[in-house]
Write the structure tokens for this entry.
Amino acid sequence: MRICSPHCGIDPETTSGGETYERELLRHLAARGAVIDIVLARHKRYPEGVPNWVIHRLPIGRGLRWPVAMVLLPYVIRRLYAETHFDLLRAHSLRYIGPGALIARRRYRLDVPIVAHHHHLDSSWLNPVIERRVIESSERVITVSEFSKRQLVNTLGVKSDHIEVVPNGIDKRFDRQPRNASIRKRHGLGDGPVVFFLGGLKPRKNLFFLLDIWDEVAKARPDATLLIAGTGPLELSLRRRARALRLDRRVIFAGRVAEAAKVAYYNLADVFVLPSTLEGFGFSVGEAMSCGLPVVVSDQGALPELVADGKGGFVCRSGDVGSFVQGLLRLIAEPELRQRYGEFNRELVSRDYRWDRCSRRILEIYEDVLAEWKRGWKRS
């Protein structure tokens, strides 16, 4: 099968969960024999030497904004179809790629089905204008969680009969390993327990709320440290807030963590925490679980699907400082509980959330869609 995939990015060092998903999924689909025509802007980086990837450059040097994509992509897709006769056109983003894909097929009468991928809906007046139309016009839509599927149906009022749920994969490299003493020393973590957050420092991660939680945890456990890794628009404000709470020595901001160093950082920690208000899946939570960490998360988005409350950690009421504090303090205080929950999480991820499983199911969906398309099947 040959797949055309116009792209916003698949950077090896991305901090975006959606971009990580695309990079790893396309890598594993290619490993299964699919040839992937990847369309990228000139400056966009990608992993070198991936078999079955064919990189095509767009005649622009900046990022692919959705209004630009609607104008530029149809011609590029038509040209690629004339050169390669690809079998299937995928839209990794309903807004950024979906309209251009649909316009290309209609305008140039391309004989290909379209499969759209989706993670979660952010609030926008454009959702019923763009996202809904792309969903309704695509042969199949693949989401990463039951929450994401419900969100589409409830928010946009679309039918669910052609929406498939395929959970994300977690790379096998995320596993237990000895703690890296040099990283621990670099951040001044000492010998006390470490609670870890990794992600973008942006509003939906709810990090001011996390500082309020830690203010209470630190009073009960002054030997514990909160390690916050990542960068984003809220970094300076968060640092100021931590100083105002006099948490300077109990909250460490690690900055950006390179992809190759992530496993070592997870293994520095005793507990992982994510109080996010919206997650389509929760990559960092899955990676932490794969490394054998117990987790404390909010009950928002898809997190309750990923985390088994009372078995792999605690799912806490969003906005309830007390429930987060209670869960964190219990895990900090009970090494045997951490061990048991962490082992449960490792086994869960190994069984249900690996890229082999994810890519196999998605390729099956692609093959099914293509077979139906060739039979002249049309969704009413």
About this structure: Residues 78 and 108 are 7 Å apart (CA to CA). The mean pLDDT is 94. The chain has two domains: 2-169+355-374, 181-352. The first strand starts at residue 2 and ends at 6.
